[in-house]
């Protein structure tokens, strides 16, 4: 049976505050837990005033105290921004606070532009090249490798489930070689989805942590009683995406009726392209689109993303969707 999870970017609304964004994320995690979702992930992004998950481990600690059973983790930590020892300490601390509930999803992208690499005192090219070795180092720390010259405390031998994230074939190949579960960011980069999943499954090598391939694919989700309302809810995130792609990111804006129709053709085509990994509509429409996506990908898990200007609408969207998907 396919499992369902949530990816939260911790959006900051226009006119809203960081404190409100963190409180809304915690409340959303409680709803995800109540509706039967398996995981609640937070993504690392930097230098964007509309996304508040940059200090990912800190945000996860806040969310972990709000929920009680749902797995929490990173979707993902951009490992080139960090060193493995520090990540082992952070996620080892989370494991000590919330035993058996912690995921550490790892990505190779920086999560922002080159200015962030400079601010982090990083060489982006070297950091990306070292990514596979850093993943192995982090896995050794979590595994409690006795040959390590120094042990992170917390972190050494922590019960953290490691995931590989990606939007290209690189992450799929590395996940297969290392025997890791794999999550594909199809909600914003669907182009290589089918090829990446096929490559991952074909080349998978079992590991102690993962005996067989386990693939997750991301979808954008907006469910509402009517198609018109669902599309209205989706317009806030669509505005943010268009602004990001045109170099003008900002806080999450209010919804705009018929937003897509107001766009130039090129922007409409961009959103249409992303719609192959989205489910926007009534609960029945969402159910059918999610099932069609599962049939296409064979995904073991679907992770849903979708920010609404009104936090209550996001809660209702997930409740409506999970009700029909669990039925």
Overall number of strands: 9
What Rg do the Cα atoms give? 19 Å
For the largest beta sheet, what order do the strands appear in spatially? Answer: 1-2-3-4-5-6-7-9
Judged by helices, strands and strand pairing, the structural class is: alpha/beta
User: Helix and strand succession?
Assistant: EHEHEHEHHHEHEHEHHEHEH
Mean pLDDT: 95
End-to-end Cα distance, whole Å, is 12 Å
Please describe the structure with a list of short key phrases separated by commas or semicolons.
globular, single chain, alpha/beta, 8-stranded parallel barrel, 327 residues
Polypeptide structure, described:
By secondary structure, the chain is of the alpha/beta class. 45% of the residues lie in helices and 16% in strands. It has helices at residues 18-34, 56-66, 84-97, 114-119, 124-129, 131-143, 169-178, 193-203, 227-245, 265-274, 283-297, 311-326, and strands at 3-8, 39-42, 71-78, 102-107, 160-166, 182-184, 215-223, 278-281, 301-305. Strands 1-2-3-4-5-6-7-9 form an 8-stranded parallel barrel, surrounded by 9 helices. The longest helix is centred in the C-terminal third of the chain and has 19 residues, at 227-245. The protein is globular and about 60 Å long. The model has no long low-confidence stretch (mean pLDDT 95).
Set down the secondary structure blueprint.
Blueprint: E1 3-8, H1 18-34, E2 39-42, H2 56-66, E3 71-78, H3 84-97, E4 102-107, H4 114-119, H5 124-129, H6 131-143, E5 160-166, H7 169-178, E6 182-184, H8 193-203, E7 215-223, H9 227-245, H10 265-274, E8 278-281, H11 283-297, E9 301-305, H12 311-326
Helix pairs in contact: 1-2, 1-12, 2-3, 3-6, 7-8, 11-12
């Amino acid at each position: 049976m396919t499992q369902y999870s949530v990816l939260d970017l911790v959006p900051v609304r226009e006119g809203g505050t960081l404190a409100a964004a963190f409180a809304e994320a915690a409340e959303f995690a409680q709803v995800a837990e109540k509706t039967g979702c398996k995981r609640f992930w937070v993504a690392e992004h930097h230098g964007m005033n509309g996304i508040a998950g940059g200090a990912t481990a800190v945000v996860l600690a806040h969310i972990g105290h709000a929920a009680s059973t749902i797995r929490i983790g990173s979707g993902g930590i951009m490992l080139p921004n960090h060193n493995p020892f520090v990540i082992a300490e952070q996620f080892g601390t989370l494991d000590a606070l919330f035993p058996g509930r912690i995921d550490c999803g790892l990505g190779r992208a920086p999560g922002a532009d080159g200015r962030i690499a400079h601010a982090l005192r990083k060489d982006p090219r070297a950091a990306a090249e070292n990514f596979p070795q850093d993943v192995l180092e982090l896995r050794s720390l979590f595994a409690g490798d006795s040959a390590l010259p120094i042990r992170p405390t917390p972190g050494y031998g922590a019960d953290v489930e490691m995931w590989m994230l990606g939007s290209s074939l690189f992450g799929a190949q590395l996940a297969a070689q290392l025997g890791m579960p794999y999550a594909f960011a199809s909600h914003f980069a669907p182009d290589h989805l089918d090829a990446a999943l096929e490559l991952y499954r074909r080349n998978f090598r079992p590991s102690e942590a993962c005996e067989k391939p386990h693939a997750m694919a991301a979808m954008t989700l907006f469910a509402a009683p009517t198609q018109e309302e669902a599309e209205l809810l989706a317009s806030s995130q669509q505005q943010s995406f268009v602004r990001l792609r045109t170099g003008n990111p900002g806080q999450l804006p209010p919804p705009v009726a018929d937003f897509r129709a107001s766009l130039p053709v090129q922007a409409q085509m961009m959103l249409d392209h992303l719609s192959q990994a989205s489910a926007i509509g009534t609960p029945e429409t969402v159910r059918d689109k999610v099932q069609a996506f599962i049939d296409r990908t064979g995904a073991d898990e679907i992770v849903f993303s979708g920010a609404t200007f009104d936090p209550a609408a996001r809660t209702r969207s997930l409740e409506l969707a999970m009700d029909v998907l669990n039925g």
